[in-house]
Amino acid sequence: MSTGNEKIAIIGAGLGGAAAGALLQHAGFNVQIFEQAPSFSRLGAGIHMGPNVLKIFQRIGMDQKLIDISSTPAYWFSRDGLTGDYLSRIPLEGYGATYCTVHRGDLSALQMDTMTPGTVQFNKRLTRLEDNGSDVYLEFQDGTSARATIVIGADGINSRVRETLLGAEKPHYSGWVGHRAMISAEKLKKFDLTFEDCVKWWGPDRHMMVYYTTSRRDEYYYVTGVPHPAWEFDGAFVQSSREEMSEAFAGYHPVIQALIEATDDVTKWPLFNRNPLPLWSQGRMVLLGDACHPMKPHMAQGAAMAIEDAAMLARCLEETGSQDYATAFRLYEASRRDRATQVQTVSNANTFLQTQEDPSWVYGYDVYAEPILDKSVA
Ligand code: FAD
């Protein structure tokens, strides 16, 4: 339970940080989120939110709002990228909640609405933090500072909080990039082809995942995984082109050719990775999501793991109270490490749902039905 005196600082208002903010506020904790971006804009990218996440959104009254704006595919199809043959037809219903595909910007906007206004402070890039035993001192790039009882590092793969706990270390470039493009469904009407709700096209060494991002099905989105020898650019992404896409997917199925032809704007994102971390928390600081266990995105579960982390961490803090954060952090890691590592491993291998398999271990998972594990007692 909250003592009312604690101040929980979350660094980063990404999908994991925002979920932690809402869930901790819901449990009565005093929370402040510090986000480096000046604001969030509706950048062109989609995201899957599986039933494992929707069960968490139920807690903060967000599930139906998300379903209302999302596409809710009944199946995940895997198809041979060259012949179009079906490799698997995975039902997405029957796991205890709805499966959604949605625009990331729309998802983020919904998440912001789940928190008390003013919870997120934008333009606050954390540059330094110091746990001095009695609290944590936070310093931001704009010259301001803050103090917190505990700090949750939800600041993504290049986390400053992770760096403070474990030292500076660049993530590994995986050797793969993801191209991302949002296509107006209007542009697809001229093709005498079927554009399925959620389909992954598999080639021998590359793939293209495609789905709608709105309930109106007026935006169709693709994200690829393509080998790319070195990442020689600065920044999170660079511009790609229709020509580059045509080259990367030469000889692939007519649906893929149609998608490339209908592409106005496509970007290219390097896919980075880290090995499992030796620790998830130290003193008053704890990590979640990509700050803790980044992965290649091929299972579409990276953000889902960040949100599951947030839910388990909130549960553990509720169980122990914020004063006993050390126990809460230990229970949290014990309860989350195996699952996050398993998903990280399968996602990196890029095999999930390629053949007919049962995805219940991923989608059927309900973080609230899981026991809080205490490995030191077991
Ligand atoms: P992030 O989303 O990275 O958020 C971190 C936040 O912290 C950002 O807002 C950032 O601005 C802020 N920040 C960083 N440093 C600081 C600082 N020093 N001070 C203050 N703020 C800071 N996952 C899915 O579940 N489903 C999918 O379909 C899916 N598709 C993907 C496709 C691609 C191509 C990629 C690359 C990833 C995909 N993922 C998907 C993974 C998912 O995007 C990440 O796992 C997820 O965004 C992690 O959330 P997070 O909150 O931990 O970190």
What would the keywords be for this entry?
single chain, 378 residues, alpha/beta, 8-stranded mixed beta sheet, 6-stranded mixed beta sheet, globular, binds flavin-adenine dinucleotide
Explain the overall architecture:
By secondary structure, the chain is of the alpha/beta class. Helix content is 29%, strand content 25%. The chain is built from ten helices and 19 strands. The protein has helices spanning 15-26, 51-59, 63-69, 104-113, 160-166, 242-248, 254-261, 302-320, 325-349, 360-363; strands at 8-11, 31-34, 46-49, 75-80, 86-91, 100-103, 120-121, 126-131, 136-140, 145-148, 150-153, 172-184, 198-202, 207-212, 219-227, 238-239, 267-273, 281-282, 285-287. Strands 5-4-13-14-15-12-17-16 form an eight-stranded mixed beta sheet, with no helix packed on it. It has a six-stranded mixed beta sheet with strand order 7-2-1-11-19-18, with helices on both faces. The chain has a three-stranded antiparallel beta sheet with strand order 8-9-10. The longest helix has 25 residues, at 325-349. The radius of gyration is 21 Å and the shape is globular. The two termini are 25 Å apart. 48% of the residues are buried. The model has no long low-confidence stretch (mean pLDDT 96). The structure holds flavin-adenine dinucleotide. Flavin-adenine dinucleotide is lined by residues 11-17, 34-37, 47-48, 124-126, 154-156, 160, 178, 180, 223, 269, 271, 289-291, 297, 300-304, 306.
Give the number of DSSP strands.
19
Elements, N to C (H/E): EHEEHHEEEHEEEEEHEEEEEHHEEEHHH
Largest sheet: 8 strands, mixed
The proportion of strand residues reads: 25-35%
Q: How far do the termini sit from each other?
A: 25 Å
Average pLDDT rating: 96
Query: Over the alpha carbons, how many angstroms does the gyration radius reach?
Result: 21 Å
Strand order of the largest sheet: 5-4-13-14-15-12-17-16
Tell me the quaternary state: single chain
Helicity, in percent? Answer: 25-40%
The hetero compounds bound to this protein are: flavin-adenine dinucleotide
* Count of separate DSSP helical elements: 10
Structural class designation: alpha/beta
- Would you identify the regions where 5 or more consecutive residues have pLDDT less than 50? none
- Mass-distribution shape: globular
